[in-house]
Amino acid sequence: MLTRRDKPPEGRHGLELTEEEAEEQTGEQAVEAPEAPAELPETPELTATAIETPESVPSRMQRLRARLARSGGLGGRLLSILSRGDLSAADWEELEDTLLMADVGLEATSEIMESLKTKTKVEGTRDPERVRAILREELLALVDPGMDRSLSLDHDESNPATILVVGVNGTGKTTTVGKLARVLVAEGKRVVLGAADTFRAAAADQLTTWGERVGVDVVRSDREGADPASVAFDAVDAGRRNGADVVVVDTAGRLQNKSGLMDELGKIKRVMERNAPVGEVLLVLDATTGQNGMRQAQVFGEVTGITGIVLTKLDGTAKGGIVVSVQRELEVPVKLVGLGEGADDLAPFDPEGFVDALLQEKPA
Fold first, then answer.
1. Which of 295, 358, 304, 299 has its CA nearest to residue 325?
2. What percentage of the chain carries pLDDT values higher than 70?
3. How is the chain split into domains, by residue range?
4. Average pLDDT over residues 146-175
5. Across residues 209-216, what is the average pLDDT?
6. Pairing mode, if any, of strands 217-221 and 161-166?
7. Exposure of 343 by Cβ count < 10 A (0-12 exposed, 13-18 middle, 19+ buried)?
8. 266 vs 246: CA distance, rounded Å
9. Where is 356: in which H helix or E strand?
10. What is the DSSP letter of 276?
């Protein structure tokens, strides 16, 4: 763990002394010490945290698709309506209500309903399987498989790729940063984390624990309320010096002080870019917040220039349609989704897998 201090020790860059520096200082002190120093108490033996091996990305994607299908929710209700065969006016209305309640959004729902009615009328079909296939086509088009959902991780030899993670406190933001580190480590990346949510000591402690579990350095301050931009700068600097591939910086999300938060996030991004360009700004949204999450997203988008969305707790809601509405509103792709409490329950978003999971029958 790399730690910033308000009164830095004599180590380089305001971080804790390296082992080499500590040995040098110890040697200097030994020259000045008396020939027969007092006996020092024994230092307790430290137990190293076991380094975990994160699950591979293909494996976690397959597992998360299965978990989404098991959650039922939207898919179960849609299939219940479509299985009735010849849909009545009341059935069509129920289908529309179901999409609206799933947070697909008014405009997108209207488009789906119009297309469904037109295509079934033109084809003259009453087959529920065909209606389901048409619905799949429409949902997939709205989720937009053509969007670039890859993380921007390009970097040169002197600068790491940098990712700034923003979002309201309580969305699982810090946990997402830790899980993202596991995704990157699983892909063979060297990672440094920056704990720039300095207003919550627990956030830095939590991130440190995540880092220890996968052998990733964490740059943090030892003082609550320290300058977040300074921590972010030091994190990128540490990444440059240590040859990291990616630096991921966690931030605060205190929306009750909107103007202060916006100023803070803008400063963090500007300061980080003194060391290396910020390639990604990921917004973490709690899928269970529905349309309220959209308002949160707009606030952060005003300052940071969001490049991608991470949707957490997607398995805990019947409102999977938030994927559609948030992409249409913000015009940026959902890049990652979280579907559980496990350390590896975060994976790249797969549009086809997502839509298919929504339309699967819930297993018994």
1. 295
2. 78
3. 57-143, 161-350
4. 91
5. 93
6. unpaired
7. middle
8. 20
9. helix 351-358
10. S
> Of 52-56, 303-307, 340-344, which has the strongest mean pLDDT?
303-307
| Percent of the chain residues topping a pLDDT of 90 | 36
Q: How far apart are CA 202 and CA 219, in angstroms?
A: 14
Cβ partners under 8 Å of residue 22, min gap 6: none
What is residue 193's three-state secondary structure?
Answer: strand
Helix orientation angle between 291-304 and 322-330, rounded to the nearest 10 degrees: 30
pLDDT of residue 305: 87
Q: According to CATH, what is the number of the domain 57-143?
A: 1.20.120.140
pLDDT of residue 176: 95
Q: Which of 53, 155, 135, 122 is nearest to 95 (CA)?
A: 135
246 Cβ neighbours under 8 A, 6+ residues apart: 153, 155, 160, 161, 162, 163, 184, 189, 190, 191, 192, 239
Q: What is the mean pLDDT of the chain?
A: 80
Q: According to the model, what pLDDT value does residue 317 have? A: 54
Q: Put residue 168 in one of left, alpha, beta given phi > 0 → left and psi -120 to 50 → alpha.
A: beta
Predicted pLDDT of residue 70 = 59
Q: Give the fold, CATH level 3, of 161-350.
A: Rossmann fold (3.40.50)
In the chain, count of helices (H) and strands (E)?
13, 9
Q: How far apart are alpha carbons 275 and 110 in whole angstroms?
A: 47
Which tokens hold the place of 48?
């190293």
Residue 104 pLDDT greater than 80, yes or no: yes
Amino acid found at 299: V
Quick one: how far is CA 86 from the chain centroid? 42
**Distance, CA of 337 to CA of 286 (rounded, Å):** 10
Whole-angstrom Cα Rg for the chain? 25
pLDDT value of residue 179: 94
Parallel, antiparallel or unpaired: strands 334-338 and 346-348 = antiparallel
| pTM for the model | 0.80
Q: Across residues 76-99, what is the average pLDDT? A: 84
Q: Look up residue 260 and give its amino acid.
A: G
Backbone dihedral angles phi then psi of residue 132, each to the nearest 5 degrees: -65, -40
